[in-house]
Each structure stands twice: as structure tokens, then as C-alpha cells.
Amino acid sequence: MEDHWTVGSVAELAGVSVRTLHHYDEIGLVRPSARTAAGYRAYLPGDVERLREVLAYRRLGFGLREVAELVGDPSTDAVAHLRRLRGLLLERRDRADAMVAAIDRELEVRAKGLTVTPEEQLGMLGARLYDAIGGAYTATRRTDPRIAARIWDALGDAQTVLNVGAGTGSYEPADRDVTAVEPSAVMRAQRPAGSAPCVAAAAESLPFEDRSFDVAMAVSTVHHWEDSIAGLREMRRVARRVVVLTFDTDEPGWQDRFWLTRDYLPEFAALLAEFPSLAGMADAIGARAEPVPVPWDCADGLFEAYWRRPAAYLEDHVRRAMSVWTRVGPEAEQRAVRSLSDDLDSGRWAERNSHLADLDAADLGLRLLIA
């Protein structure tokens, strides 16, 4: 087997042009690191592996800048990239499957001459929300070390930890005995090899005895539960202590804390209209609340993460890992993206938000409940 490959042979194998490979070389995305006997540049196995990752992300719709960040992540190896790509593909497959099933149901109804309600027509877009967005999580939703430090400090000396609504495993402490709970099959499938055992269950009905764990934790998940208060009480039942990262809607004018919801996505407020108050959640488990500022370069692509990097919200793969966009619907999303893009191009966004330029972190409503 060859130990290196020429630019021409790699182009043929990958189904791309030599010009594309030269461009990737010029911008430092994939550089062939060997030389042939005749002095021409050639690819080593590691170069080919990186090219495979670049091309895979490109075919999933990622821009070159985002691809460079993904393949350049020093904490991500080839296996992690494969798992991430698999998750993204699963997302597309599951979303397509859900929409096909919804279309089939509507066709059956129409074939019988029955009226299809607006709710039924739009249901295909919101079907299986967490499964539909879950496949995108591994691309942008990573553990941010500063937020993690706050959560892990709140865990105290707990040795047994239950992570409720665990998703793909972000923020699970490596030095504790962790058990995860996650209802979404898509999310469970993306948990890294060697991660904590994961039980398929919902927060509102945890399959554990009273006080089975030292602490139960939940990170940015309470808003997805059918009954948030019931889920929190279940956490209190099965654990001696509870730590929850959630969102505060008690403060007057909370919708205006974040420029994205203030200026571009007013529909966000309606999404949380029935969400329990922070005080109500704290009372349910006897907790105190502490603010958790969002760093300007937050590694976890949660909804507020890019408050000082507004162009990120123009990227489809970034939005797909945020449940907000799926819930507000495509019309509101497209309008918000167009308006933000226009304001970034015109400089209006920069004028409105010039005070953010010197901030290292911002209080955008994230709160840690500690009981």
C-alpha cells in the first residue's frame, strides 16, 4: 500500500477537483505534508483523514470557517469526528422520517375527503422536537470549562450523581460515579464510548428509589420537560441534593437582556409564557439561585452563547442545535436571520451593541439552582 498519495490521485478518490485541493492547501485547511520523488506535494494518511473530515462537513452544509474550527479542535480526534458526523446524519434522517410519516398521515386524511387543520399541517415541522434537533448537538454543544466549574463546584463532595436530561453527556463530571437519564434515542446514540450508563426515561418519572444518589443534576434541559415542577420534585426525591442550570424569567423586562430576543426574535417570550418562574422552581426543591454569566467565547453553543459573535446565528448548523429555532418555526427564523444579516452588513448591530465589545462575560439569565 502506498504511504503517500499525489494531489491528482486524492482528487480522483475524493470526487473533488485538484483546484479545490489547492484552495484548501492555500488557506491552510488541508495541507499535503509529503513530497514525491519528483518533488511534488503528496498526502500522508493523516492528511487524507483530515480531508475526509473537511469534505464530510462541507457536504453537510458547513462553511469553510466553521469546518476549520471543527477539524482544528484539539480536543476532538478521528473517532469523535465520526461520532459527530454520524449524529448530524442521524438528525437529517430522523427529521426526514418524521416529516415523511406526517405527510403520509395527511395524505390518508385528504384521501378520505377530510379537512386537515392548521395544527396538523404544521405538526410535521415540530414532530419529535428533541430527536429532530438532537443530531446537531455534537457539532456545537460542548462542555464549556467555566460553566462546568460552576456546576461541578455546586456538586460538592457528591460521589454518586444522576444526570437528568443528560443529552450527549456534556457537563458530566469524570471523577464521579454518574448515571444518566435521557429520553431521546438520537441523543443517547451520540454519547461517547466510555461515558456514563444512560437510562431511557423521563424526568417526571425517574426509575430509582428514594435518595438513591448523592446529587441529581440537570443542565439546560428543564424547559424541554412536559412538567418541569414534577421533574424537579422527582430529582429531589431520588437524590439528597439537586443542582439545576436553568433560565430566569422572573426579572421585569427579561426579554430585553439579550439583543437577539429583543431586536430579532420577540417570539422567544411566548415560548416561555408557561415556563415556571425561577422562584417557583426554587421553591419546589428548596433551592437558592446563583447567576451564571455566559463567557464571550463560550464553547457550548447554547442559545445565548454567541452574544458577542452575532454572525454565528446566521449559520444553519449553529441554529439547528438550539431548540428555540425549531419551536418558533421557519417563518420567524428566516425573518430574524434576514434582519440580523442586514444589520450586520449595515453596521447597525454594531452601533446598537457597541457596549458589548469590552465585556468578557454577560448575565443573560442563566441561573444555577442549588438545593
From TrEMBL:
For this UniProt record, the keywords arranged alphabetically read as follows: DNA-binding
Q: Which CDD domains match?
A: AdoMet_MTases, HTH_TipAL-Mta
- Lineage top rank: taxon: Bacteria
GO function terms (MF aspect):
DNA binding; DNA-binding transcription factor activity; S-adenosylmethionine-dependent methyltransferase activity
Which residue ranges does the record assign to the HTH merR-type domain?
4-73
Q: Which InterPro entries match?
A: DNA-bd_dom_put_sf (IPR009061), MerR-type_HTH_dom (IPR000551), MerR_fam (IPR047057), Methyltransf_11 (IPR013216), SAM-dependent_MTases_sf (IPR029063)
**Protein name in UniProt:** MerR family transcriptional regulator
